[in-house]
Design goal:
By secondary structure, the chain is mainly α. The protein is built from 16 helices and no strands. The chain is globular.
Amino acid sequence: MGRGPHPPNSPAEDPYSHKNLDSGWPIPEFSFYYQGVSVLTLARSNLLSPPVLSFGLGMFGTRVKSDLKLPSPLPTLLSTYLLLAIGLKGGAALAKADVGDLALPALATIAIGCLIPAVTFFVLQRIARMPITAAAAMAAFYGSVSAVTFTAAMTFMERGGYKVEGFLPSLLAILEIPGIIVALLLAARYSANMKLGPALHEVLTGRSILLLGGGLVIGALSGADGAERIAPFFVTPFQGILVLFLLDLGARAGDGLGELRRSGPAVIAFALAAPLVFGPFGVTVGTLAGLSVGGAAVFGAMTASASYIAAPAAVRVALPDVDIAVPLTAALAITFPFNLVIGIPLYLEIAKLLG
């Protein structure tokens, strides 16, 4: 296949050239631009980014018995910063967005947020023969969304020159809630041993929802002037904070690998299969909802991800007898790194084909 014109909805120059990826690290230059850049090239460029390498360093440190986990309460502080920064940036963009452009993607987000946990629950409970409460816990994790995966996908699109809709953080906040609620309702229907009321309160008032939602409101009300005033703290240091957070996350994921081996092949197989099914499905839905190529790719990364902030808190309250180490480790040690290294470039490739 020879050189072709630049694909539609992509930047005029090769987004994976040395020029665009240069951040101080020597990255091989990919000089040939094809109608569709190969997934291998996309995955390689993402693999060499500082956030992904930092996550890998954290996992490696754990395996060689070096403790790279950040001391408490730094992980909580960093996650607070990231969630609030995402909300503030999204709110500033939301202030300039057309409400009509948001309506269909928002409805699609709610629909997909209800569908994924239902599919997860019935696949694991009926096919993998997982206990009802354990299947519901997995459904809550995989029905919700990872804000860090969202951030990594947004960063990848920005580095590649792909524009994304400014209201995507709003969709992130929306996707946090329905998946957990649907999973808990399924557990309540098939099991009497759960506390639905306190769990719903935890979902709706949890830290991640309040930080994302509150950030969106603050950003929207303060507008461009407010965003400019806080940019030196919430925009400029963002990538460095993300690298630190992923270092800690990698160390914690490495700690859970032993637990994952004990959880059985069904959990491992699902953690690998879920992003391969839900990610392309999300890209397709995002494209049909009118999102741009970059926006649909980020939406696919969102639907392919699993929560490890909001879901654990809700499941711990609603299903106290469930060992949340299993879904948490599956999300952190398998699904999250898969999305970082392979998934995000793959979703962009699919979005380019559909767009």
